Amino acid sequence: MFVSQLVNPYKYTIYPGFYESCGPEGEKLIEYVEKEWKKEPHKGELPLDIVEQTMRGGDKAVEYIMAVAGKATKEKAEFQRLVNDMLCYREFARSFGWKVRAAQHVLNYKWGKDINELDIAATLLEKSLEHYRNLVSYTKDTYWYANSMQTAQRRIPIGGDDGKMKTWQELLPRYEQELANLRKNTKMLRAIAKGEYKENKAEYKPLRNADVKIANSGAGAWKTVTLAPGVRLFEDLDSTITALAPELQGLKAIVVNGKQQRADGTQLTFSTAKPIKLLVGYFRDDQMKYAKAPKLETDATANDYGQAEPAYTAAVKINGMPQVNVHTYSFAAGSHTLLLPKGYLLLLGATNDEVKPRDVALSGNDEAIDWLFY
User: Fold this and answer.
1) Where along the chain do its domains lie?
2) pTM value surpassing 0.90
């Protein structure tokens, strides 16, 4: 994993059933660090305990197999492959263990704003890289690929699109880059603190509406509204927008019927003369009444329109409802029908403009800290 994924896992629409089914009750790293800062009691398995056990297990694996090295009387080549496997396990455990510890200090910075925490994180991340380079050396001539990475469905750490990024060696430059980015951004934060850096606050301009013709008309026609605080996006619910990303201001959204969405899902038939991106809002909640956001782990079609990752996280606030992540669905010129899952979701409009992903952070908490690695 990238450190950015450890410190902001919700950006990647993590699938709760995966980690809930893989072990007993426990805490994610972001939960663990938050509880540490709030002096709250912990519950179940804890992330730092797990990486410590894993690293210890890797060391023991090498210790035990080396204890019988040289004693094989036949199939010696196969025995050496087993030795190499144990070395791989140890280096993988050490690499990930130090990365988790680095992520802990990054999250400490998020809560305490002590820049020294980022220096500690960089040191630990360098240790992680040392062990990852060892892993690369042990695998480059002995493994063809990491089998689970041979798919575009995999999004963590990165997709295996077009048969790429399926070996440990291919990922090494990406991991080196995240450390370089952390050091660069830490240097910038220090300059800001000393008054030696003039920070250019990003100006986020509203996306322009695309010309889209919606097929259904007459009775039951879709009603559109211009996105702004105070607007209702459900015809049968009283909830109104209380805040939204500047990029979404002014887009022509479609007013939906929540009861119908829960019963039948959402179907939109439309045509466009130019390529567009359709913006769909998914509520960050696992309750059955909310439509499930695209997840490649459980749906092989979840990136057919480039929608797998959210473009804007925490981008819309609606009173009485969960936070909203916005995903973009890309369509070529022509006529299309889009089928979306059952449950509440938002049809926030369409644009021809480039959509630059970011965390809007309307949740009221500090902005997600993964920007340190970009």
Assistant:
1) 3-193, 212-373
2) no
